[in-house]
Amino acid sequence: GESVGLHLPTLSVQEGDNSIINCAYSNSASDYFIWYKQESGKGPQFIIDIRSNMDKRQGQRVTVLLNKTVKHLSLQIAATQPGDSAVYFCAETPGGFKTIFGAGTRLFVKA
Amino acid sequence: DAMVIQNPRYQVTQFGKPVTLSCSQTLNHNVMYWYQQKSSQAPKLLFHYYDKDFNNEADTPDNFQSRRPNTSFCFLDIRSPGLGDAAMYLCATSRDSPVQNIQYFGAGTRLSVL
After folding, report:
1. Mean pLDDT of B77-103
2. Dmax over Cα atoms in chain A, in whole Å?
């Protein structure tokens, strides 16, 4: 079936280091991808998006990379801070308004 | 300033007793969504409205229904909650642009079934 999955369920990084969260998707028809951050007790919050005609997109301290050949997404967080501790979901939109979320990666930032 | 508001934040119901969760938005977005999120899992789309057009996901049980009386409000009705329906229910909204479908989520309603 169609799925979006993550390679690592948890990631622990030292404060100040860079974080890389990976995601694999399986729907070749998807042309739009989003990373969401979900803090405890809150709904997911948009971080950054990328369209399939791009390989890379940068935001403030975050970069998303898309490799369509191997159907892989990654989210890079520079200089990770304690406030970055959360669960991160990649999501794909295979068509219309449907959104499929990946399994999520929990990021722990050690002080 | 909350833009997508869900009430209540916590809801306790009894097995088989109908329950309604509510969502309101101040963004004037055309599209509203309901997701179910179980512990340590990804949100799972139940259905969405594009204006008044209802779009059900194929694997959403009939036990789950929804109403959207106007642009601002959307309700999730669970007709006969079972123990397996205990979860966080998330409401989200987006503009009517499937090519840039950024969704804005509420804080969720955590449903417990006794």
Report:
1. 92
2. 42
What separation in angstroms does the CA of B81 have from each of A26, B77, B87, B103?
33, 10, 11, 27
Residues of B in contact with A51 (CB under 8 A): 99
Q: Do A97 and B33 touch (CB under 8 A)?
A: yes
Cβ partners under 8 Å of residue A85, min gap 6: A39, A107, A108, A109
Min Cα separation A90/chain B (Å): 10
**B32 part of contact set with chain A, CB < 8 Å:** no
Residue B98 pLDDT > 90, yes or no? no
- Cα dist. B92→A89, B3, B83 in Å? 15, 10, 24
Instruction: Quickly tell me which residue has 């999501």 as its tokens.
Output: A91
B33, B103, B104, B109: best mutation site toward chain A, by most A Cβ within 10 Å? B103
pLDDT at residue A26 in the model? 79
Contact B100/A32, CB-based, under 8 Å? Answer: yes
The structure tokens listed for A56 are: 């890379």
C-alpha B39 chain-centroid distance: 16
Supply the pLDDT for residue B2. Answer: 67
Strand order in the sheet with B19-25: B4-7, B19-25, B73-78, B64-67
Residues of chain A with pLDDT under 50: 1-3, 5-8
N- to C-terminal Cα separation, chain A: 40
